[in-house]
From TrEMBL, chain A:
Signal peptide: 1-25
Organism superkingdom: Bacteria
Protein name in UniProt: Putative spermidine/putrescine transport system substrate-binding protein
Species whose genome carries this gene: Bradyrhizobium huanghuaihaiense
Record InterPro entries: SBP
One Pfam family per UniProt: SBP_bac_8
SUPFAM superfamilies, alphabetized: Periplasmic binding protein-like II
Automatic annotation (TrEMBL), chain B:
Residue ranges crossing the lipid bilayer per the database entry: 50-73, 85-107, 137-157, 184-209, 236-261
Keywords: Cell membrane, Membrane, Transmembrane, Transmembrane helix, Transport
A cellular component annotation (GO) from this entry: plasma membrane
PROSITE patterns, A to Z: ABC_TM1 (PS50928)
Organism taxonomic ancestry: Bacteria, Pseudomonadati, Pseudomonadota, Alphaproteobacteria, Hyphomicrobiales
Name of this protein: Putative spermidine/putrescine transport system permease protein
Domain of life: Bacteria
Compartments where located: Cell membrane
Signal peptide segment: none
Entry similarity comment: Belongs to the binding-protein-dependent transport system permease family. CysTW subfamily.
Residue stretches making up the ABC transmembrane type-1 domain: 51-257
GO biological processes: transmembrane transport
Membrane topology: Multi-pass membrane protein
Amino acid sequence: MNMKRNFGLGCALLGAIGLTSAADAAEQITFVSQGGAYQQAQTVAILDPSAKKLGITINQDSIPDAWPAIKTQVGSGKPIWDVVDTPTGNCLRGGEQGLIEKLDFSKIPNGAAMPEAYRSPYSVSYEFYSSVLSYSQKTFPKDAPNSWADFWDVKKFPGRRALRNHPFATLEAALMADGVAPDKLHPLDVDRAFKKLEEIKPHITVWWTSGAQSAQLLNDGEVDMEMAWNGRVSAVAKEGAKVAFTYNQGILQSTSLCILKGAPNLETAVKFLNEAVDPVHQANLPLHIDYGPGNPKAFETNVIKPERAAQLPSEPANAAKQALMSYAWWSSPAGEAAEKRWASFMQK
Amino acid sequence: MLALVSPALLVILALIVLPVGWLAWQSIYHDGFTLENYRRVFTEDVYWRSFALTFEISLAVTVIALLLGYPVAYLANSVPKGWSILILSLVVLPFWTSVLVRAYAWLALLQRTGVINQFLRYLDAISEPLALVHNTFGTVVATVHILLPFMVLPLYATMQKIPNDLMQAGASLGASPSLTFMRVFLPLSLPGVLAGCTMVFVLCLGFYITPELLGGGRTVMVSMLVSRNVELYNQFGAASAVAVVLLLSVLAIFFVVSRFISLDRVLGQK
């Protein structure tokens, strides 16, 4: 009896040891995002709960621009990262260049349930932000500019202006200013967009390059209106500056999750990917930072209060006012050509 | 002697020669030899504009730094030792502040709601704020500020070596102070002028943060082109080619200057 019990205990112990070592060997992944407050918010909202639910260890790494590292890691044949959170275009471009795993959506039910515009063969949307028209409420206490046509109208809305020194979202804004409907932008009419940009170019005081710079311009009153990312504008407003923005004709952009080709923990990575876009985890993200969930089903979970939802870029009513950026177009040859054309536009 | 310098040589080899060599190699080798990156640099006008603008800005910065720096060095050279130390400390002081902080400080001074515009409006000297920053002007102002010590120090070092007797001799032969300056002091200080100008010009060619922050996106200098090329073409070769062309122009400048003056002097040693 005694002996039997000990034997049983021994078996259980052995089994436990076997389990833990298996967990150590296989059940972990390395997840990479962009660091800062953004990665912290994810850790609380998505990463820790996912790790707990799946019983895996998530090792974190961060890098501002993952693309060069993806190239070198996969190029070396022995990548160390598994899952990367990066602007969606990188996932698509990486997929086309054989750097990113093709996803089997039968193993990712949460991803398969998302609308098609929110996923690609290589990636699922993870979070949303928007390039919006923002303005100083000091300059425009009422009758503020509310569309890109207003931004282009220097007579009706005099004031100093800034745009991002990058074709992403800027070409879309130019086309909307020229009368193209937000849902009819693609494929972008590049010639028409640059022609429209030539029109506003003499009135642009600053072409900003970093999010921090766009925030400073608005905060210091250096410009009266500009294109900026919604999270940056709301942060400036929270600090007490009299600034506001509109989601009308914003350009909805996203980062996505994708898995490196030949990732060391492929199976666990797929499991994590599914868990990370779970509607409830996704709904937790905007409770910690001003970004919208990548999975629109998050808005049906009741985790996000209606007044909070109304502030988020991917909330369905807000999303309906905006243009969804087509990363597929931007990573196509036409998109790449437009990106190269930007440099000569700026220096003319 | 060789044993003594070998650690230094190893450091230079590992940290300078190898990376620069690797850089140059990447610019001509990408899945086989290719001159595509150089073809682009020499045929697309974006690159020409950037190189031209970079040389223009560097020239402007050098001239302004010389005009501002020469009197400072002259003053530091002619006052008693204690005063000259004070003057030189003031010249070197900004070195202890990061370039980034100084760029933002200029932003605070020059922007529309900045100190200078507000003061001028207070005086009613202007009705509309002046466009002092987010353009080439702002870039030049901040760059001059950052590079001024590189002009003053070689000038001062050269002036220190001009024997005072020569000026006294000039005066005793009946020359006015301004004539002695023009005929004796100025020619003897020219090596310092050349040294300071070369330093400032060459350093300015590679400026990145200042034009990026104060140029408003329009002032695209060569170093910014390097970083944009990495983003745009997603391969380092495209950026390397720009860097190599810039490096070769710098070497060419040093070569030309070395025909007139020993390089030791440019680097401030003798």
